[in-house]
């Protein structure tokens, strides 16, 4: 995941990311989607697993 910290802490400083293989990058406007995503427990499971390790 890229941006999982920004979902929780909107003041987090952005970082540069480089893909090592072809991929898709989906950018969501946080102003609209942040409240929805923070209330979606199914969505939050995956990034929280990465944050705990």
TrEMBL record:
Coiled coil: none
InterPro entries: cNMP-bd_dom (IPR000595), cNMP-bd_dom_sf (IPR018490)
Stretches assigned to the Cyclic nucleotide-binding domain: 1-53
Name by which UniProt lists this protein: Regulatory protein YeiL
Annotated organism of origin: human gut metagenome
Top-level taxonomy: unclassified sequences, metagenomes, organismal metagenomes
